[in-house]
Amino acid sequence: MKLKTELPSPGWRGVGGEEVSELSETGMKQATEINGDDSSAPPLTPGSSPRRERGDRAESAPDALDGLGDAMARATQDLPLVRIGGRVSAVTPAFYRVGGLSPFLKLGERVVLPANGDARPQIGEVVRIDAGGATVKPFEGAIDARLGAEVHRMEAVSLHPHAGWRGRVLDALGKPIDDGGALPLGERRVFPFAEPPPAMHRARVGAHIRTGVRMVDLFTPLCAGQRIGIFAGSGVGKSTMLSMLAGAEGFDTVVIALVGERGREVREFLEETLGEARSKAVMVVSTGDESPMMRRLAPNTAMAIAEYFRDRGEKVLMIVDSVTRYAHAARDVALAAGEPAVSRGFPPSVFSDLPRLLERAGPGCEGAGTITGLFSVLVDGDDHNDPVADNIRGTLDGHIVLDRTIADRGRFPAMDPLGSISRLARKVWSAEEQGVVRRFLALVARFEETRDLRLMGGYQPGHDADLDQAVTIVPRLYDALRQDPSSPRSRDPFREIAGMLQNG
Ligand SMILES: Nc1ncnc2c1ncn2[C@@H]1O[C@H](COP(=O)(O)OP(=O)(O)OP(=O)(O)O)[C@@H](O)[C@H]1O
Ligand SMILES: [Mg+2]
């Protein structure tokens, strides 16, 4: 039997007495489709569905009642019985102001402009509160407010993640945007803008994880719970590198936030690049044409989902492509909230928003799982010292630098081993491996610093044994390190490189 259930809409009245009947937001009106055989079962709400996570046993009557009670409690959490309203007092292309609500609002809460004629209800977030009113930026669509229109208060965005979200694609608000139908909802309610676990209660970074990408495993090895950035100018291979890393074995769930990507790239990433990893990946997508509110929310929503899987004890891989576009969205919101721009056009709150997001990746509290974070960072005009890149680099436990000159020579991944570091590499390498890596890096450095000299014909073999060795080995090493998304994954990079150098 296919059963469609909906929670009754209580039909509250706004300040002006009109009824807000249709709100599509999760939690305002929840509907789900459940496939089951028992037509006599009580009406099921999302959390009490047979797919809910409290064990697999068949539901006895008290269980079903408990489930119904839980679901009602959850639903009413989202549905206040008294609605507080204010009125629009100013409208600009970037935000609108609401009077009369300020004493009742907190930053980060939402308000809704009720449906008006053909226009759907428009939900926005409170980004500034002062004595004169509150500043609101809508999540979706152009500003649709009229002066004097009523605005009602809602709670902050929240989600009910569920293991069945793997393989699904969501928007920043947690609504499905693929063809997979309604999302199963879990028991726990989480908020996108959560705090990182307290530093002293966090477990230590976990064991080494092989990614299968030879250059990364060799020069910047990753540990479970590590946070690493991929820094590069545009079009140098950040997204390709991330998609190769998304396929790493050893992670239970991969959560991917695509922020500010081109719409075309999202489908490409999903259908071609992600490959087998897709079935264990939850994707949260906010494309470049969506509002800054959605782009700012998307990585936080994804992080809340990653935290849910981490708290189930899983090894989670969290990917954000790109953090820079998240920073741009946070800048737009902060400027609309009236903050001054202090550092190359960025208001100060951006530099606290960034570490707050990145710090949430890492190991959980003792006994929980880990979130390994991979964050792509677009460096403006290949300037690796711009303030956003600098701030992010300082927060992370390592960085992989992709270099345009290497990409221009057609060598991919275009990773610069000399500029890339993993702060946890020493935990991973054996003494012997560390010696090999040091030797490789010394040879690469020698080879690169003499590149111009050699091109001008100033190199004669036989005068400098180190340089002779670099000239023989480094081009073969570079060849051995080439890898594209369709190449086989690397199993043991040290052995493979040794084999290729001997055979070459
Ligand atoms: N490992 C690789 N093997 C082969 N080609 C690659 C590889 N990585 C990147 N490329 C090439 O570089 C191009 C750009 O890569 P990608 O889209 O990953 O860059 P990006 O840094 O994410 O770009 P943007 O800044 O526009 O998001 C790809 O279309 C592909 O041609
Ligand atoms: Mg990209």
From TrEMBL:
<dbReference type="InterPro" id="IPR027417">
    <property type="entry name" value="P-loop_NTPase"/>
</dbReference>
<dbReference type="GO" id="GO:0030257">
    <property type="term" value="C:type III protein secretion system complex"/>
</dbReference>
<dbReference type="GO" id="GO:0009288">
    <property type="term" value="C:bacterial-type flagellum"/>
</dbReference>
<keyword id="KW-1278">Translocase</keyword>
<dbReference type="Pfam" id="PF18269">
    <property type="entry name" value="T3SS_ATPase_C"/>
</dbReference>
<dbReference type="GO" id="GO:0005524">
    <property type="term" value="F:ATP binding"/>
</dbReference>
<dbReference type="InterPro" id="IPR040627">
    <property type="entry name" value="T3SS_ATPase_C"/>
</dbReference>
<keyword id="KW-0406">Ion transport</keyword>
<dbReference type="GO" id="GO:0044781">
    <property type="term" value="P:bacterial-type flagellum organization"/>
</dbReference>
<dbReference type="InterPro" id="IPR003593">
    <property type="entry name" value="AAA+_ATPase"/>
</dbReference>
<dbReference type="GO" id="GO:0005737">
    <property type="term" value="C:cytoplasm"/>
</dbReference>
<protein>
    <recommendedName>
        <fullName>Flagellum-specific ATP synthase</fullName>
        <ecNumber>7.1.2.2</ecNumber>
    </recommendedName>
</protein>
<feature type="domain" description="AAA+ ATPase">
    <location>
        <begin position="224"/>
        <end position="407"/>
    </location>
</feature>
<keyword id="KW-1005">Bacterial flagellum biogenesis</keyword>
<keyword id="KW-0066">ATP synthesis</keyword>
<feature type="region of interest" description="Disordered">
    <location>
        <begin position="1"/>
        <end position="65"/>
    </location>
</feature>
<dbReference type="InterPro" id="IPR000194">
    <property type="entry name" value="ATPase_F1/V1/A1_a/bsu_nucl-bd"/>
</dbReference>
<feature type="compositionally biased region" description="Basic and acidic residues">
    <location>
        <begin position="50"/>
        <end position="60"/>
    </location>
</feature>
<keyword id="KW-0963">Cytoplasm</keyword>
<keyword id="KW-0966">Cell projection</keyword>
<dbReference type="InterPro" id="IPR022426">
    <property type="entry name" value="FliI_clade3"/>
</dbReference>
<dbReference type="InterPro" id="IPR005714">
    <property type="entry name" value="ATPase_T3SS_FliI/YscN"/>
</dbReference>
<keyword id="KW-0547">Nucleotide-binding</keyword>
<dbReference type="GO" id="GO:0016887">
    <property type="term" value="F:ATP hydrolysis activity"/>
</dbReference>
<keyword id="KW-0067">ATP-binding</keyword>
<keyword id="KW-0813">Transport</keyword>
<keyword id="KW-0969">Cilium</keyword>
<comment type="similarity">
    <text>Belongs to the ATPase alpha/beta chains family.</text>
</comment>
<keyword id="KW-0375">Hydrogen ion transport</keyword>
<keyword id="KW-0653">Protein transport</keyword>
<dbReference type="GO" id="GO:0046933">
    <property type="term" value="F:proton-transporting ATP synthase activity, rotational mechanism"/>
</dbReference>
<dbReference type="Pfam" id="PF00006">
    <property type="entry name" value="ATP-synt_ab"/>
</dbReference>
<dbReference type="GO" id="GO:0030254">
    <property type="term" value="P:protein secretion by the type III secretion system"/>
</dbReference>
<keyword id="KW-1006">Bacterial flagellum protein export</keyword>
<dbReference type="InterPro" id="IPR050053">
    <property type="entry name" value="ATPase_alpha/beta_chains"/>
</dbReference>
<keyword id="KW-0282">Flagellum</keyword>
<keyword id="KW-0378">Hydrolase</keyword>
